[in-house]
Write a structure and sequence with these properties.
The protein is α/β, with parallel strands linked by helices. It has a single domain (15-202), classed as Rossmann fold. The protein has 6 helices and 6 strands; from the N terminus they run E-H-E-H-H-E-H-E-E-H-E-H. A 6-stranded parallel sheet has the order 2-1-3-4-5-6, with helices on both faces. Helix 3 (69-80) crosses helix 4 (95-105). The radius of gyration is 15 Å and the shape is globular. 41% of the residues are buried.
Length: 203
């Protein structure tokens, strides 16, 4: 796997911008950030919901729809602006993964993209030469069905990105979050082992 495209500045610490899911900035997101910091990475976890959290996915989707995707994307971009000069790894959970992908594909300095449970559509003219990308997704996943993920993979490859997809049979959609019914400890452990190795390569 390529670890950086030409022009991306080498660095010894991976700077990670980690976006939360539609549940909001819950303890699981902060715990994930601490896991990454313990491995030596610098991590930011912007609160795109301004302090609001949800107990169910339905409630989270209501918050998301109330704020609107355009405003969420604006907030995500604003959160990255003070930290992006040296090149960020963008990461996110579900909805946050969708935002992370969109922001990363618009950032020529992006060092990597780590998607946990979520993707977004890809513009026809998107370019991501040699951008390292990992997607971790449940199998099956009602929010990321097989046909969609297969098409997403091909479109992402056409951008020039270096893409890996990891599927976890029998896990629920948001299986890395211990506070949701989807949690799967085995799948979560396997995901974090692979994701940490990915970030080590990028550093």
């Amino acid at each position: 796997m390529s670890t950086a495209a030409p022009g991306r500045r080498p660095q010894t610490v991976t700077d990670v911008m980690l976006f939360h899911s539609a549940y909001g900035l819950r303890p699981a997101v902060r715990e994930a950030a601490q896991r990454l910091r313990a491995a030596g990475h610098q991590v930011w976890t912007p609160d795109l919901f301004d302090g609001r959290t949800a107990e169910t996915v339905e409630a989270g989707m209501e918050i998301k729809e109330e704020i609107g995707r355009d405003e969420l994307l604006r907030r995500a971009i604003a959160a990255t602006a003070p930290h992006s000069d040296g090149g960020l790894v963008y990461a996110g959970f579900s909805m946050g993964g969708s935002l992370a992908q969109t922001v990363a594909l618009g950032d020529a300095k992006a060092r990597g993209l780590l998607l946990l449970h979520g993707t977004a559509d890809i513009a026809e003219d998107a370019v991501a030469d040699d951008l390292p990308v990992q997607l971790h997704v449940a199998d099956p996943d009602p929010f990321e069905p097989h046909d969609w993920v297969s098409a997403w993979y091909l479109r992402m490859r056409r951008t020039g990105a270096d893409v890996e997809v990891f599927r976890y049979r029998g896990a629920g959609h948001l299986y890395t979050d211990p506070g949701t019914p989807d949690f799967d400890a085995g799948a979560a452990d396997a995901t974090w082992r692979t994701a940490l190795a990915f970030l080590r390569e990028l550093a």
